[in-house]
Amino acid sequence: MEPDGKTFRGGNAVSRREFVGTVIATGAAATVPPAHAETPQETSQQVSCSLTINGQTHELQLDPRTTILDLLRERLRLTGTKKGCDHGQCGACTVLVNGVRMNSCLSLAVMHDGDRIITIEGLAEGNNLHAVQAAFLEHDGFQCGYCTPGQICSAVAMLDEVKAGAPSFVTENLASNGRIELTDDEIRERMSGNICRCAAYPNIVAAIRAVEQGRPA
Ligand code: FES
Ligand code: FES
């Protein structure tokens, strides 16, 4: 670290803000190795599958045991989506499938022939971060960043669920004509499938609350 707050890597100066911006946009900076990096061995029984990932259609021949997570990380090199537990317990691997959040470690890719998948790399539009990405940056909604891609994808879908009037376990007034007040308890309950080992929860809640308050009802 230099006195002006810039970090030098390979001769290039990177400010902290530039660094964390990259984390938010692509999940690229979290370099903790995955708990289980192995993929299924190739077999002769390949299955055809067409997936549109971040707007790009992929015609694939896949071992039917390949999860969406392993397809993304090991085959397509979209490593923003993280592998934490590989057992559906941490939410680090959350992506959007046809607009619905999903643990990609639990779902076989060939089951989603024809589906649309959005990962953390596909949320921004050019240089414009998605509102949830920008809010996480603004509110310091992360520390190491390993859970962050999953947290952000989950929050994007969760906000749509709230807007659609889907109740959660803590929703008190189920007769509110679909208008749900997104209290902090609601945010915590709805994001409970996404674990943060750094316990950045207060800032994650603040970021999501800011997005909800800033968008039209
Ligand atoms: S890696 Fe999928 S839930 Fe943990
Ligand atoms: S920011 Fe480190 S695990 Fe969530």
How does this structure look, described?
- The chain has 217 residues and is α+β, with helices and mostly antiparallel strands.
- Helix content is 29%, strand content 14%.
- The chain is built from six helices and seven strands; from the N terminus they run ββαββαβββαααα.
- It has a five-stranded mixed β-sheet with strand order 4-3-7-5-6, covered by helices on one side.
- It is globular and about 50 Å long.
- The termini are far apart.
- Residues 1-5 and 7-11 have low confidence and may be disordered.
Topology, pairings included?
Layout: E1 7-9, E2 12-14, H1 16-26, E3 47-53, E4 56-62, H2 68-75, E5 94-97, E6 100-103, E7 116-118, H3 131-138, H4 148-163, H5 184-190, H6 201-214
Helix pairs in contact: 1-3, 3-6
One FE2/S2 (inorganic) cluster binds at residues 142-148, 196-198, 200.
* Main beta sheet strand tally, sense and closure: 5 strands, mixed
Task: Report the bound ligands by name, code or SMILES.
Answer: FE2/S2 (inorganic) cluster
Query: Poorly predicted ranges (pLDDT <50, ≥5 residues)?
Result: 1-5, 7-11
Tell me the number of strands.
7
User: What is the average of the pLDDT values?
Assistant: 87
Approximate helicity band: 25-40%
What is the general shape?
globular
- Rg, rounded, reads 18 Å
Q: What portion of the residues fall into strands of 2 or more residues?
A: 5-15%
Sequence of strands across the biggest β-sheet? 4-3-7-5-6
Structural class: alpha+beta
Distance between the termini: 44 Å
Number of helices: 6
Order of helices and strands: EEHEEHEEEHHHH
